[in-house]
Amino acid sequence: VNQDGSRRNLFQVLAFPEVSFEQIRNVTSEIQLTDPEIGMQLEKDALYANYIQRQHRDIAAVARDESHVIPNDFIYDGIDGLSNELKSKLNRLKPDNLAQAGKVEGMTPAALMLLLAKLRQHMRRKAS
């Protein structure tokens, strides 16, 4: 494995919560020379890298579907995972589409994904 491949593999190993930088420090001489503070930062970066990648995929999915129309009679109260405050805002504002819903104060990418999933479910029920 080339040097970049080795670094990538070590970074992937660090993504496991039970693996510390100190545990892999002796894998290569290059890592042995790494400052402990940098090692701690690498641990944190690796641990959150998968989460950040998933969030980027979610954001891209929402961007593709931002023109998805929200029916005027759509009920937000049935969406588990949305805060009561956000449900109240959505019920009051009645956004026309996902892009408008994304601009509601307090809306997160995860909440938009929940909303999109419920909208798709709602449309499938109406179609059958």
Query: How are helices and strands ordered from N to C?
Result: HHHHHHH
Distance between the termini: 53 Å
Q: What is the average per-residue confidence, as pLDDT, rounded to a whole number?
A: 86
Major sheet, described briefly?
none
Q: Globular, elongated, flat, extended or rod-shaped: what is the shape? A: elongated
Gyration radius (Cα, Å) is: 21 Å
Structural write-up:
By secondary structure, this protein is mainly alpha-helical. It is 65% helix and 0% strand. It contains seven helices and no strands. Helix 1 packs across helix 4 and helix 4 (36-64) runs parallel beside helix 7 (109-127). The longest helix is centred in the middle third of the chain and has 29 residues, at 36-64.
Secondary structure elements and pairings:
Elements: H1 3-14, H2 21-24, H3 29-32, H4 36-64, H5 84-93, H6 98-102, H7 109-127
Protein traits:
128 residues; mainly alpha; 7 helices
Short structural summary:
The protein is mainly alpha-helical. Helix content is about 65%, strand content about 0%.
